[in-house]
User: Fold these one by one.
Assistant:
Number 1:
Amino acid sequence: MKICLACSAGGHLTEVLQLALVYKKYDHFFITFKRKDSEDLSKTERVYFITDPKRNIIKLLKNIKESITILLREKPDVIITTGAGVVIPTCYIAKILGKKIIFIESFCRIFEKSFTGRLIYPIAGLFLIQWKELSGKYGRKAIHAGPVF
């Protein structure tokens, strides 16, 4: 099995790195955007940098092209993501390609759904929340899994 770990740099990357005991057992790679922490990660892991669309249509189109290229090259079986917006196109493209999507809602989302969570919920095969207080906000598919930290 090959795992794609897709997330924004910063806190979302910090959360996904907490899953190392799981993903290190498998062939894996990261999709994120360039920032100091993600550039440091690229020294020890296979990391693909994509454009952060930041609600800009030209950057979004570039992100889509980059995501398609990476997913067709790497052919992952599953996408594990903690968000945020930079990976929404990656997840939808992966779903179109028949890949499984696992979404882990951000640790900071205790009472309200995230923008990314709202968009990924319909396509996620497994949708995990970290706080009981968020139970019932999404629907039956959302599973309280506890914190990743």
Number 2:
Amino acid sequence: MSQFFEIHPENPQPRLIKQAVDILRSGGVIAYPTDSAYALGCCLGEKKAVERIKWLRSLDDKHNFTLVCADLSELSTYAKVDNVVFRALKNTTPGPYTFILNATSEVPRLLLHPKRRAIGIRVPDHVLTHALLEELGAPLMSVTLMLPDEDLPLHDAEDIREKIGKLVDLVIDGGNCSIDPTTVVDMRSGAPEILREGRGDVTPFTD
């Protein structure tokens, strides 16, 4: 049965955060707020949850999935980065960016592009999101909550509840989010390439 939690975006209730993480650990899919738009998330390695997210978003195997992390401390576990790339990420996180990086063998195969071992890494600047990640103690597998027949991400929890509430295990109402997705920067070659201009300022990567 799907659930709907109202969690304060600045002072998240620990009891509800714990319940949300329990849902994730049991293989659930959640809709949650970030510093850009709302997102769909599940635990790493939960194949059925990942397949459900792919179905909800009508994604194919070529889609780059994102690991949403509390900070950069686990970066080397999941992505291959040199000092130059690490400094670029450190200077722009937390924030509304997704960085495409070369993945390590720790990233589950079902999250990878079939022809290139690439993964998105994201460190959001959002108190509620961080509370979830800290309680979980691991990154979230995540994608922007943008439905196949729509041009913009969903940003209102009641709207999300109405449209897909029965298709996910939990919708978290943490207030309205931006309608802008993250700015996506490909850092695999070391030199930044802007793949999508979103809420994050591209100036640090174009100067």
